[in-house]
From TrEMBL:
<dbReference type="InterPro" id="IPR037136">
    <property type="entry name" value="RNA3'_phos_cyclase_dom_sf"/>
</dbReference>
<dbReference type="InterPro" id="IPR013791">
    <property type="entry name" value="RNA3'-term_phos_cycl_insert"/>
</dbReference>
<dbReference type="GO" id="GO:0006396">
    <property type="term" value="P:RNA processing"/>
</dbReference>
<feature type="domain" description="RNA 3'-terminal phosphate cyclase">
    <location>
        <begin position="12"/>
        <end position="333"/>
    </location>
</feature>
<keyword id="KW-0436">Ligase</keyword>
<dbReference type="GO" id="GO:0003963">
    <property type="term" value="F:RNA-3'-phosphate cyclase activity"/>
</dbReference>
<dbReference type="InterPro" id="IPR000228">
    <property type="entry name" value="RNA3'_term_phos_cyc"/>
</dbReference>
<feature type="active site" description="Tele-AMP-histidine intermediate">
    <location>
        <position position="322"/>
    </location>
</feature>
<keyword id="KW-0067">ATP-binding</keyword>
<dbReference type="GO" id="GO:0005524">
    <property type="term" value="F:ATP binding"/>
</dbReference>
<comment type="function">
    <text>Catalyzes the conversion of 3'-phosphate to a 2',3'-cyclic phosphodiester at the end of RNA. The mechanism of action of the enzyme occurs in 3 steps: (A) adenylation of the enzyme by ATP; (B) transfer of adenylate to an RNA-N3'P to produce RNA-N3'PP5'A; (C) and attack of the adjacent 2'-hydroxyl on the 3'-phosphorus in the diester linkage to produce the cyclic end product. The biological role of this enzyme is unknown but it is likely to function in some aspects of cellular RNA processing.</text>
</comment>
<keyword id="KW-0547">Nucleotide-binding</keyword>
<feature type="binding site">
    <location>
        <begin position="298"/>
        <end position="302"/>
    </location>
    <ligand>
        <name>ATP</name>
    </ligand>
</feature>
<keyword id="KW-0963">Cytoplasm</keyword>
<comment type="similarity">
    <text>Belongs to the RNA 3'-terminal cyclase family. Type 1 subfamily.</text>
</comment>
<dbReference type="InterPro" id="IPR017770">
    <property type="entry name" value="RNA3'_term_phos_cyc_type_1"/>
</dbReference>
<dbReference type="GO" id="GO:0005737">
    <property type="term" value="C:cytoplasm"/>
</dbReference>
Amino acid sequence: MTTPLELDGSSAGGQFLRTALAVSVLENEPVRLEHVRGDRSTPGLGHQHLAVLETMAELCDADVSGNEHGAETIEFEPGLEGGTDPAGRQRLEGGSYAVDIGTAGSATLLCNALLPLATILESPLSVTVTGGTDVAWSPPLDYLRYVTLPLCRRFGLEATCEVDRRGFYPDGGGEVTLRLAPSSLERIDLLERGSLEGLRLYSTESESLADRDVAYRQAEGALERLERDPDLELTERCETTAASPSPGSALVLRVDHGTGVAGFSALGERGKPAERVGEDAADAANRFLEGSAPVDRHMADQLLVFLALAGGRVRVPAVTDHVETRCDLLEAFGVDVGLEREAETTVVSVAPSLDVGQ
């Protein structure tokens, strides 16, 4: 085994693992991760983290050690044997795969980890994931479908996500299919927010909650709480009743502006009024509208790997722990990341550093 890059996850969570594996595949560089999810109350690989590891390994025929539930040290060596681009760099074969997380572990986080691999694909890739689609500590499905993917498609990512079934906590059982096509990214520059163009609202309830009008009440709570600019017109309102093994609900707000989109979300909880779910998402949107950043705080860290691939500058509303952790990880792979802190925002600058074909 080639000497792996040594990485320490003692002060990080699952995001560190997912990003490290994605970049390892992109660079075709082996890694050794110690103290996996070391800052969590239950460190080591959970079911959803193990699913990401095993999916990445299957996609690139990697040699892996430590691929078991609870493992705190893993080694991962990609085995890319596809074709090469004109510069002789390895490419990733596409195909169709199925992944069952086995719990309500996040399907959307697994999909997010796979998105950058579109830049090294030889042929289309389809991955069907069974697990939680709208669960805590992860982006709801509609955030992925209506915020992450539309924004990334503006810069050349060719990706879609289809939903067959929703999966809420605790049973999960949702099913989504991520489809990626070979993609070449353009430089990402998101420094100024353009003029406000519209507000989109996506409210979802499980069938078991339909008789309580949860989706409608969530939407009403959000719209009543939202301090809307006169120019921010409601351009789409979608309320959905979905089949799911578990009761649950979710709401996503999307703000469209001249240079991109931003998203804000909240999940239903036992004992929490549906109106409050909408209010929580609206509160996040209100904070965004008071500032000047073109992306929301969650999109800020999701874009960093794409910045390392294509280069660019993004103004973010805050340097969150996730942003700091991902910046440190990219620097460990040799990526030059700059943070220009200003009064209320920070500009993240990244030169295209990952050795994949553009």
